[in-house]
Amino acid sequence: MKASDSDAGVSQFKAGMKLEAVDRQYPSLICVATVKEVNGKGQLLIHFDGWGPGYDYWCEPTTPDIHPVGWCKKNSRGINKPQGSVAILYVYLLYICTLQVFS
Known about the structure:
- By secondary structure, the chain is an alpha+beta fold.
- It has a single domain (3-102), classed as SH3 type barrels (Roll).
- Helices cover 20% and strands 23% of the residues.
- It has a 5-stranded antiparallel β-sheet with strand order 4-3-2-1-5, with no helix packed on it.
- The two termini are 14 Å apart.
- The model is unreliable at 2-8 (pLDDT under 50).
């Protein structure tokens, strides 16, 4: 999903897309995340589903910290599911459905 992996480049990223992203505070953790915003420079605002905005971060689309849905499964890595309420559970179920479609 990184821009280097596709001829589509940064245009492939849109707000609302699901990803698997490294938690930069705890780099051993990979979490369910959403592209919250894409700025005019093509940078991505990554939001960890179920966590507050204080954990969000901006990154380049070529960063090794973001992966397409299913990357953890394909690479036998654990993924942290979203924390929180029933609404977050719904988001996680959507993520799982996406994972099933693209696996």
